[in-house]
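Running this now, will post back.
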Amino acid sequence: MTDTIHTRTQSTEKRSPKQQSTKRPFKTSAIQLGLLIPLLATAGCSLLPASEAQPGGGRGQSAREEGPVVVKTMLAETGSVAGLLTYTGTTRPVQQVALRAQVDGEVTSLLVDVGDAIAQGMLLAQLDGDLQTTTVNQAQAELSARRAETAQAAVSISEARAAVVQAEATLAQAQIDAERLRQLANQGAIALQSAEAAELAVTNARQTLRSAQARVAAQSQAAASAADRIDAQQAIVTQTQKQLSYADLRSPLTGVVLSKQVDIGSFVESGATLLELGDISSLEVTVQVSELDISQLSLGQSARVTLDAFPGEGSILGQITQIAPLADQVSRLVPVQVTIPNSGSSNSSKIGSGLLARVQFTSAQQNLVVVPASALTLERASEAPSDSGAVGEVSEDATLFVIEKQGEEQDEQTVAIARLVKIGNRDQDRVEIISGLDPREAFITQSDRPLTSGQAVRLSILSESNESSTDEPMVEPAKGEGRS
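Update: finished.
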């Protein structure tokens, strides 16, 4: 058994030199590969053509400076740097009223409940009207009495006028008798005393006539007073009938019942609220806007309203319908009212009063071209950037580079053209272009070395262009280099 083990050990030792000779080439290849990787990493740029290498001196640097400048371009887009103003408010009906009792009484009927649709003039509730009915009956009875007085006054006027007529006839006859007797007395046919008695009768008849005429005037005045009392009583009757109608409470608008304050059997006094009604065909949201932002808003301006109660249903387009002329003297906030439609929308059966609404105002200017601030070269100095990185207040004129095709078809090349533009508002990294650049027009945002107008350029693979192809990958500019 020992010999066998020894024999195997010897055979193993005999094979070891052969195995070592077999593994030696692999060990040599591994060593060579380990030495080659650092060399490849160090000479990586030498594997690229000289024109594609990073700046550094030598032949690659010279070839890059002689060839077209590699640039990155973007397509001009419209927008605004003003940003979106967002505020919160609460929805309320465009019209909301409290239905109040105008007379005292017990609620005998409620014909609607919360959430019911109502129409203008619809009967909603009734109060006990027995007291008002009694008052109306009394007023009507008094009116009848006043009318009877007027009729009696008319009869009295007629009697007085008849007495006047009789007095006039008596006076006329007395005057005739007195004149005849005076003639007979002058002739001595009768005694003078008889003539004097006849003249006295004339005087009495005249006095009786005056008294009858006075009675006619008095009766006429009494009749006029009775007529005035009739008019006054008629007004009382009308008022009591109106008070009786107050026992029936009708809707002053078309909308829905928002809330109910009483139940059947409740006693209410004049002025107590029974129902809250509202017209929710449109809703209003009033938000408090800072005085610093109010200049960006105007009547009729669009606004987007999002309701937290319906997060998955998107926003509703509304508009500004009122900007209060008076700001709060402490907070400097200005109430702004936004109206949104509610009828005819998918939410028309859900949106009600009292919901939290987030109002987002869009900028009034949405048709201006907006470009990165780094693409501009200012013609006049601007304020230094702030510590927060904001672009200072830029001047009105600036220069940017656009690309154009020049030459014949066979020799056509792309060149950079400097263009003067008018600029407007800006934020930290974007500027509005008022004029000088059209939407969807390509402009240069970055170059691998300083540019001059008319210089040939090549578009990088990251460039946006109206053409489908680009020339080559972007070569990052060396430190200290960039577009002029």
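The chain is about 35% helix and 30% strand. More later if anyone needs it.
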